[in-house]
Amino acid sequence: MKFFTQLPIDTQMNIERLLHENDLNQNGLIEGHELRNILNILGMNLTEEDFHDAMVQIDTDNNNVLDMEECKEFFALCYLEAQD
């Protein structure tokens, strides 16, 4: 978790809370509909193509499953890029 650990602790906690609250079946994975909901909450209303691209970008181990660590890194990177 190279980016996530660079965030302020309160931001880390906010990202973790957002992910856990939207992991509707509490399986520790973020499924497509759960990710879509998170992105909508954050005001990121993506087209289907952009959403697919985001899914591919987040799934860094290419196993077609978004685990919490991958999601935390993705949202940490988004946060850090927004700070620049």
Could you characterize the architecture of this molecule?
The protein is mainly alpha-helical and about 80 residues long. It has helices at about 10-20, 30-40, 50-60, 70-84, and strands at about 30, 65. It has a single domain (about 10-80), classed as Recoverin, domain 1 (Orthogonal Bundle). It contains 4 helices and 2 strands. It has a two-stranded antiparallel sheet. Helix 1 (about 10-20) packs across helix 4. It is globular and about 30 Å long. It starts with 8 loop residues before the first helix and ends with a helix.
Could you give a quick summary of the protein structure above?
The protein has four helices and two strands, in the order αβααβα. It is mainly alpha-helical and 84 residues long. It has a single domain, classed as Recoverin, domain 1 (Orthogonal Bundle), CATH 1.10.238.10.
The chain-level mean pLDDT equals 93
CATH hierarchy class name: Mainly Alpha
Total number of distinct structural domains: 1
What would you call the shape? globular
Helical amount:
55-70%
Please compute the radius of gyration using only Cα atoms.
12 Å
Order of helices and strands: HEHHEH
CATH superfamily: EF-hand
**CATH architecture name:** Orthogonal Bundle
- Structural class by SSE content: mainly alpha
Number of strands: 2
CA distance, first residue to last residue: 20 Å
Report low-confidence residues grouped into runs of 5 or more: none
CATH domain topology: Recoverin, domain 1
How many helices? The count is 4
